[in-house]
What does this fold into?
Amino acid sequence: MSYVNMEAILENARKDHYAVGAFNIVNYLTAKAAVEAAEELNQNIIIQTSVKTVKAFGIQEMMGFLKPIAENARVNVAIHLDHSTDVAFTKACIDGGWSSVMYDGSQLPLTDNIKNTMEIVAYAKPKNVTVEGELGAIVGVEDDIVVKEGDHAHAKPADCRIYLKETGVDAFAPAIGTAHGVYKGEIKIDYDLFEEINEFSLCPLVLHGGTGLSDEMFHRLIGLGASKVNISTAIKIAYCQGMATFSKENPDQNDPLKLDAFTKQAVKKVVTEHIRFFSLMD
It folds into this structure.
């Protein structure tokens, strides 16, 4: 198996009506945990990096430890840049070795979003890098992008048709009522809208804000065409709570390797549960 772009992973997912988990990792430990979980289940995986995380490590430094993990994996692995609102930074990550990127122009006017996304697609395609785009605003906090409850708007089918036709993106994330972060209050998802968009979209659809959705919600959305499901908050919780639990249970233990091993298993458990569910495994 090999280091691939998202097209190589999502094509079969859409055709066979299952979803691939896309997990936002924060360092080597979480990336290794996610890929090991995928290997043990013999399922492909998408490793996602937020802009904030990439900037914290540096483009070359981060790809320096991520790419070997992907290249040595026993399953197909894509490394995806999540929610980049900066055209120049997105291009820099393409040059830096990412196999897939998301340009998020969802907070811009439609014409500007299309223009910038087209620029990214034109830059990425010759390098065999896939591009994900987004329309509508997904409420919550993702990286440094903040969308307040009253500011979000569902994607409009007419706008989606124009956007998809003009940009030629490889994956598309329409806002349908999901949220980034931890959900507060009732979750209201527009399933009919998602189904309508999937019927005319030539590329796989992406579900953002997956952490916190019920099993029934996941099943329904995957059945309606969600081929990629983003999981970020659950990874962060598993990582932070894993460290906290180990420290609480072992107050006199000061071996970083034991702390890392415990935390890695906590992350791995969460990734395993999601992969099994998305892939419709028994």
